[in-house]
Amino acid sequence: MIDKEQIxxxxxxxxxxxxxxxxxEIDFPPPVFAxxxxxxxxxxxxxxxLINRFPILTEQLNPYGNMQGGIIAAAxxxxxxxxxxxxxxPNFTRHIEVKYSQVVSAELDYIYVTAxxxxxxxxxxxxxxxxxxxxxxxxxxxxxxxxxxx
Length: 150
Prior knowledge:
CATH architecture: Roll
Number of strands: 6
């Protein structure tokens, strides 16, 4: 499990404000983020983006030795999800569309997911994400729509 000590205090304060002092009721980051060994790399509240890094683990590989597509989608969701909590909680993923550009070989060691908040329309939040290797080579991209809970 990821220790909350590893999360920048600025983010924890922002979440505390957004969740009206109820952070003790929320797992942030969620257990699935910890299971995937995710790591927060960068964020910018004003520009509304978040970057996470995920290792390519042996148990995530398909029969060809590449990262399974559903795991790539989970890494995307585990980056857009925390960003969505910072943008406008509470909400949930309503639709996510992933476009794979290249195989994610185990030789890459890590993938980097950059999520960006695009806009809010009524009860919908729109996000985009890009998955890259350590050299900035695009591996996949995604669009996601989240639904605000009232």
